[in-house]
Hints:
Blueprint: H1 14-19, H2 65-75, H3 77-80, H4 84-94, H5 99-112, H6 119-125, E1 131-135, H7 143-147, E2 158-162, H8 169-173, E3 184-186, H9 195-204, E4 210-212, H10 220-229, E5 235-237, H11 244-252, H12 264-269, E6 284-286, H13 297-301, E7 309-311, E8 340-342, H14 354-359, E9 367-369, H15 384-395, E10 411-413, H16 422-431, E11 438-440, E12 488-490, H17 501-505, E13 512-514, H18 522-528
Parallel strand pairs: 1-2, 2-3, 3-4, 4-5, 5-6, 6-7, 7-8, 8-9, 9-10, 10-11, 11-12, 12-13
Amino acid sequence: MPKRSSSGYLSVPSKKRRRLAGDFAAFNPEYDVANSQAPATDSIINATSVSTRPPQRRRAATPSLASLASKRFAFYFSTLLGSEENQRHAAQYLRILPDTILARLVDDLKKYRPTFMSNGFISAYFLRPPSVALDSTLTGVNKHTITGIQRAGSQLTSLSLRGFDKFSDATFASIFPSLPCLETLVLKGCTKVGERTVGAITKSCHQLRVVNLNHTTPTAASLGRLLVSCKKLEVFKIAAVPKIASDLPNRFLIYDDWRLFQTPQFLASLARSEPGIVSTCLTSLKLRYIATPDLPLISLLGHFPALRRLDASFTKVTSLSPSRFLEHPIRPLSLPDLEKLNLTAIPLKPGSAGLVHFVANFPSLRTLSIGGIGGQENPTILRDRDLALLTSRLSGESSNAWPPVRVPLENVNLAGNSRLEGPALQYFVRKLGRYCRELNLASLKGVTSDTLEGLLPQPDTPPPHARIASENDAYPEEWDDNTSCLEHLNLASTSVDDGAVPFISSCRRLRSLNISKTKISSEITAPRLCLV
Length: 532
């Protein structure tokens, strides 16, 4: 037992006392900034100093017992069901398994043993309401499995069938008359789903809130009837539906023809209903890869006043000028207040100035993707003057309000616009880019190290929107309102070099950084960008 000192406390070894020698925070001339003898390698910590903090180590969440048991059962599925006694024992518990755990077990079986489940096994245990989810990785699914879903009846509220391209349109259509309470429906990749199936859905499933028909083959007329009949529909995805190409302008866009405004039928309908309003509940619309020539996007938006998220990337939108349909003197329709807008690779006509005015109509916009404007044929449509004008409008500098009110952008994608150069990009980064959480500037040769100077703290320009710190944030006590909000930055295939490192390092919230195919050397990246 160690000897006690006269004060009654345990004595501390002399070695430790030597380590603690000297007063806490005592003056040290070696690190005195004003001292002319200070080492030349020392630098004042300021806005441009490079962060050398070690990366935060995140602890993986401990899986629950139910998750571990589900994975174990799925991994040893073939062994557990090797004998009849084991099958009876497993069947007894599978029938009483809670719905939440059953859904997790289905996902684990898809991952570890997708080829071991037969039609009988799936039909007996996994076609239970309120949710059924199957995909083409389950080789035991056949026509009888699909038609057996109708036995769930009115208790089924969620149905997901993905990638089944071998079953006919009639097979899918036969199950929906028995499912009147469906709220979520996903038929993505079921390429033979067509007009007959969508017609059955239209007649029977009026409670739908989410519909995903990506990569299916219904007609535009059947989709229009589905939108009108499902009054509660909130999410509608029809990406890569080929039959819309020639049918959409004449069938899907009700009242879009200017001549309809002059007919007695239209004037009589003004007293009965709101013409042109297809859905007042739709908040998300996905039209990706729709090949309709000259898609009238603005007229389409007038049909959905509650729309918040629109994906029209890789479509044939050639003009974004105001539509005559929206400017009609009798009852014009206004554009919805979008929060997400994806216009990647739309083939706007050269000299079209409608993009800037169109995007500026959405004061609540948070996600904007305008990469590769002009498409593969002409990717040089978006130029410096367009980006500068767009930045001025979205940052609020073009208005007379003071202080300027910025659009609360969080995610911006400008990748692939090859005509954008230094001054306009630098202005964009300083006024908008530094306040985003995600910024994609990939394949922009005009992005240099000087472009990123706007990422440095700017005391006179606080962020346009408040950011709530989460428990996963690293070093939140060191942050202030002047620090860039960037968390994900993509600079792949740009012209940045080692001079950009101080600017990037000032982004303390940065979590991921892509600098592939740039001029930044690995010797600089490893020790100085350790935060990422």
